[in-house]
Amino acid sequence: MTRWMWAVMMVALGTAGCPQEQKPVGAARAEVKSLGGSTVEFIPKDTQHPYCLLYTVSEKGIIRQLTMTRENRSIRCEAGKRIYNSSFRIPLEEGKVRAYIFFSDQRIQAGSVAQQLYDLRDKPRVSAMDFRLPGSVAVEMLEFTPQPGGEPVPGAVVGTTDLSDNLEGAEPEAEEPGLQLAPTDAGTTPPR
């Protein structure tokens, strides 16, 4: 055998004898809790950054910011308590949604995150590295499929700002939960 054949044989034996390296499964940063039908809560786990932003992206491409404040910045999120101290009702007609929770060590502006999420809407998975954000940021993606029926939940947020069209010019009349800007081609007006 030539040296080259010995080298190939040693490499083949070396790789055959090595066990497959397993990638550690990352611990979930949050959980989605279904309250029945299309109503859901998002609950952060322990050891997360103190601030968060919550967005949903539906199968139809509609992006909603669920943590809307007057300052349009991330909110304080406590471990074990539902985000925004609210339940959210996901519109059934929009189908399955991916919920993105951005945990950060400082309050960040929501508008830039919304624009970047809009730009990445077709990407099946996003991570904190896909976003240009200050400080330490972690992203958790959870999926939820709304089902018909379910009992109404008192205090559930029915809709929030729809960010699917005109991201830069979409200014809600009041930055409160429950406000929804309909897409311009839908022909509907926002609820008052």
TrEMBL record:
Residues 146-192 are annotated as: Disordered. It comes from Melittangium boletus DSM 14713. Residues 146-159 have a biased composition (Low complexity). This is Lipoprotein.
